[in-house]
Amino acid sequence: MDFTNLLGFTAASLTTLAFLPQVIKIWRSRSTKDISLPMLITFIAGVTLWLIYGLLVNAAPIYIANGITLVLNLAILRFKLKYG
Q1: N or C: which end of the chain has fewer CB within 10 A?
Q2: CB–CB of 44/77 below 8 Å?
Q3: Global pTM?
């Protein structure tokens, strides 16, 4: 793996894993009152576009990270809609 892809995968891993503690916290507390629904929907739209872009340019760090980030944020959205 070349340095550019290593850098991309490292950055992607860090920014993607940053959402895992939030998902766990929401799951345990069943509280999403401090999460803005408009921000979350806007972020999900952006991540979806990044995922599509990554697929179109065949950039694995981009599409893998954004695919995982999308799944984590869809979980947050589900909790937000369920728990308010």
Answers
A1: N
A2: yes
A3: 0.87
